[in-house]
Specification:
- The complex is a heterodimer of chains A (167) and B (198).
- Chain A has 167 residues and is mainly α.
- Chain A folds into two domains: 75 residues, RNA polymerase sigma factor, region 2, helix turn helix motif (Rna Polymerase Sigma Factor, Chain: A, Orthogonal Bundle); 75 residues, Winged helix-like DNA-binding domain superfamily/Winged helix DNA-binding domain (Arc Repressor Mutant, subunit A), CATH 1.10.10.10.
- Chain A is 71% helix and 0% strand.
- Chain A is built from nine helices and no strands.
- Chain B starts with a helix and ends with a helix.
- Chain B is elongated, with a radius of gyration of 25 Å.
- Chain B has one domain.
- With 198 residues, chain B is mostly helical.
- Chain B has five helices and no strands.
- Classes of the chains: A mainly alpha (167), B mainly alpha (198).
- The interface between A and B is large, with 60 and 45 residues.
- Chain A: It holds the Pfam family Sigma70_r2.
- Chain A: It comes from Chitinophaga qingshengii.
- Chain A: Belongs to the sigma-70 factor family. ECF subfamily.
Chain lengths: 167, 198
């Protein structure tokens, strides 16, 4: 049991960047992202036995992590005054805000406004999945995946433009 | 802007080190999944219902005659049998939800229909108990010493029962909406997004 747990945690450690990206796409605050991260790890561990027959951990992980993110419910937190303003360190390049960080900030901010399924489509696309693979993973038809993905990409560009940013 | 720009940005993003991988998996729990929240309600209610059944066993203190006590325990045993069946089904449902893995879309469908079925069972169980309660209330009213049964009394009883039934129906539906309905709605929305036509 301990060996299995260690093996699982090693897989997670290797692939945590992917889970991290999913969390940033689906949740807008650091607390919610951490909650989702924990939830994804929990769901992965819960269904780890079903992975044994799969060929690659990452392929299986993508599917479980995204499905978890899609049905994830935000914790009902007390309303905190939030601002749309950009974090200070990003606004001022002299204080460490690089172009890459700025682009990522705008990208994730726009992605967070997409529908849950659109986020999954964009994620798979950015991970270089084919339309066929995206369709299989999400349980939709290939044509549907292609059309929905194109719509999502257009919407994403529009959302980034609305933020007054272009790259 | 081209999507290729986003692609290259995406490839360069290593995710950072903000997220903490739990050291001990036993300590992590799920709390933000519709399925898990429903499980929590089912568990809490299950214990509550068991407690209520035990407490109801002491209710004959309120009976006024021997006949009422006999009638009460007859109906009580029927209720225990009904509750036994339903609570067993609810327990199976609770266990099933605990082993649900969300690795495919089919799992989401399975969970959705399972919750819907549970809601229907919950309704039928509540109304079965309601009928037994009304049956006992009728016996109690009709067998209480000094009660005169005339048309006014019958009308009063019908009105009282109608109001009581209405109240129970409204409360049950509100409770179902609060405990299961909102999560079912959430899952339905996701299924709708997946199924949406072109």
């Amino acid at each position: 049991m301990k060996n299995k747990e260690q093996e699982f945690l090693a897989h997670i450690e290797t692939n945590k960047g992917i889970i991290h990206k999913i969390c940033k796409m689906y949740m807008d605050t650091a607390d919610d992202q951490q909650d989702l991260f924990q939830e994804v790890v929990y769901q992965l561990w819960k269904s780890y036995d079903s992975f044994q027959e799969q060929s690659r951990f990452s392929t299986w992980m993508y599917r479980v992590a995204l499905n978890t993110a899609i049905v994830f419910l935000k914790k009902e937190r007390r309303k905190v005054q939030t601002s749309d303003a950009m974090p200070e360190h990003l606004a001022d390049e002299d204080h460490g805000g690089t172009e890459k960080e700025l682009q990522l900030y705008h990208f994730y901010k726009a992605v967070q406004q997409l529908e849950k399924l659109e986020k999954a489509l964009v994620f798979y696309h950015l991970e270089n999945y084919s339309h066929r693979e995206i369709a299989d993973n999400l349980g939709i038809s290939e044509v549907n995946a292609r059309v929905k993905l194109n719509r999502a990409k257009t919407k994403l560009k529009e959302l980034i433009k609305q933020q007054g940013y272009a790259f | 802007m081209h999507f290729d720009d986003i692609q290259s940005l995406w490839n360069k993003d290593d995710g950072g080190d903000d997220m903490v991988v739990p050291v001990n998996l036993e300590k992590i729990k799920s709390a933000n999944q519709p399925v898990e929240r429903i499980r929590q309600y089912v568990k809490r209610e299950g214990w509550g219902q068991l407690l209520a059944i035990v407490l109801l066993g002491y209710a004959p203190h309120f009976c006024k005659t021997e006949l009422q006590v006999v009638a009460y325990y007859s109906l009580y045993s029927v209720m225990v049998a009904i509750c036994g069946y339903y609570l067993y089904r609810f327990f199976r449902f609770y266990r099933r939800l605990g082993t649900t893995a969300l690795s495919t879309r089919e799992h989401l469908d399975e969970v959705y229909y399972d919750i819907q079925l549970h809601v229907e069972m919950y309704r039928s169980w509540t109304y079965a108990i309601l009928m037994l309660a009304l049956g006992f209330a009728t016996i109690r009213l009709l067998t209480s010493p000094g009660v005169v049964i005339d048309s006014t009394m019958v009308i009063k009883m019908i009105l009282l029962f109608a109001v009581f039934m209405l109240l129970i129906v409204v409360c049950t539906e509100l409770w179902i909406r609060y405990t299961y309905g909102r999560y079912l709605k959430e899952i339905k929305k996701i299924r709708g997004e997946l199924r949406e036509e072109l």
